[in-house]
């Protein structure tokens, strides 16, 4: 296979948060892309109070968590059909040269979860030590990361009826199809011509979806609805049985995003939420003794928003069966995952039920538990061990 490269003059990378530092010290074959993604999806109309300020945010948590509160299913008042086109900010990176494995023609599409943007996969800290993107490139893979709808540089529509998991599943599906049909390569070629360089792009032969937390639920949603367009999947920070959802929204320490930091989150109106403090971030994402305190501060610098609609709709896509999906699935969990396993993932799931009920046609379903890590797997001291476990699994599946 001939070497893979993008434009002769590579674009400098930038993170989506104004507080985050740049990647200028790293020399990589990456390009930033603005994708126009058209989707059609059926969301739900939920009976929930509006969140227009921090007082509302606290009251919303009371409304959700009181023992007398209705279930999420009982809150559904109807269907909200979404038929729209959204701007999605993405970054595509390809390995600089072939290592003889042809892995460069395997595209990983990585979907981040709540609390971060695509920087979750590409932490610019300690010279890229924590970067999953760098690790994937070193392993020979091509990788596309993107800001989910409502996050970072992507569009930020209505937080109640539009930014929900069903729409985000369709966004990921359309990005996957764009890669499979050559549309992504064409976008890169156009951008290369516009910059005056000659661009050679890979024709991706296989796609592996990689998710984290909510991003893993979205990944599983694509397997359920469109399993024939994906060759492999890795769900990190989520497994759809056991303790998932048991900690509730009360554990996140949420505030109304624009009230929390108007300069940083201006324009994210009603229903956009963000974690209030560094300690709130630690409670969900970090395990004491297994992270560098400077990385916790970095996490607070790059933290991002989520929506009321996402919190309500996550469970619906995470628990869907995927009978038509025939590829392998790895659930890559943290030992001390508070968000997914209420603090300890060892024995906190029923793998046989997952195989039988949710992934009956999958060629292989396994779990890897990364020791000494919390929910924010890419931000812990042993992140590279987590990455290697993923690559070893995929390699063993021919991916």
From TrEMBL:
Keywords: Hydrolase, Signal
Hydrolase among keywords: yes
GO molecular function, one term: hydrolase activity
Domain of life according to the entry: Eukaryota
Signal peptide: 1-19
Domain AB hydrolase-1, first and last residues per copy: 112-379
SUPFAM superfamilies from the UniProt entry: alpha/beta-Hydrolases
Keyword Glycoprotein: no
Name the record gives this protein: Alpha/beta hydrolase family-domain-containing protein
UniProt organism field: Aspergillus lucknowensis
């Amino acid at each position: 296979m001939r070497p893979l490269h993008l434009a002769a003059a590579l674009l400098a990378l930038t993170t989506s948060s104004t507080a985050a530092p740049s990647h200028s010290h790293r020399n990589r074959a990456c390009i930033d892309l603005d994708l126009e993604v058209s989707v059609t999806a059926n969301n739900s109309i939920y009976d929930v109070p509006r969140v227009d300020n921090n007082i509302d945010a606290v009251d919303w948590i009371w409304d959700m968590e009181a023992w007398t509160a209705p279930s999420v299913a009982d809150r559904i008042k109807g269907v909200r059909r979404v038929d729209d086109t959204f701007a999605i900010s993405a970054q595509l990176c390809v390995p600089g040269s072939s290592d003889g494995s042809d892995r460069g023609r395997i595209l990983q599409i990585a979907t981040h979860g709540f609390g971060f943007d695509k920087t979750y996969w590409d932490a610019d800290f300690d010279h890229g030590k924590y970067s999953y993107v760098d690790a994937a490139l070193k392993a020979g893979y091509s990788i596309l990361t993107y800001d989910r709808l409502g996050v970072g540089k992507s569009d930020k529509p209505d937080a109640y009826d539009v930014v929900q998991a069903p729409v985000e599943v369709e966004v990921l599906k359309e990005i996957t199809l764009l890669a499979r049909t050559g549309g992504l390569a064409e976008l890169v070629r156009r951008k290369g011509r516009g910059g005056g360089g000659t661009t050679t792009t890979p024709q991706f032969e296989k796609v592996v979806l990689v998710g984290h937390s909510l991003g893993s639920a979205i990944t599983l949603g694509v397997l359920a609805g469109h399993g024939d367009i994906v060759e492999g999947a890795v769900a990190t920070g989520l497994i759809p049985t056991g303790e998932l959802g048991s900690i509730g929204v009360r554990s996140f320490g949420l505030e109304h995003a624009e009230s929390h930091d108007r300069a940083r989150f201006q324009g994210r109106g009603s229903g956009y939420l963000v974690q209030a403090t560094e300690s709130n971030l630690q409670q969900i994402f970090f395990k004491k003794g297994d992270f560098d305190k400077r990385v916790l501060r970095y996490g607070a610098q790059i933290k991002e928003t989520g929506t009321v609609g996402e919190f309500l709709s996550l469970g619906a896509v995470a628990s869907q069966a995927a009978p038509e999906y025939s590829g392998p699935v790895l659930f890559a969990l943290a030992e001390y995952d508070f968000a997914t396993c209420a603090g300890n993932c060892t024995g906190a799931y029923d793998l046989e039920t997952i195989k039988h009920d949710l992934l009956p046609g999958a060629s292989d379903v396994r779990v890897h538990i990364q020791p000494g890590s919390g929910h924010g797997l890419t931000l812990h001291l042993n992140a590279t061990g987590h990455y290697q476990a993923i690559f070893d699994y995929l390699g063993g599946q021919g991916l």
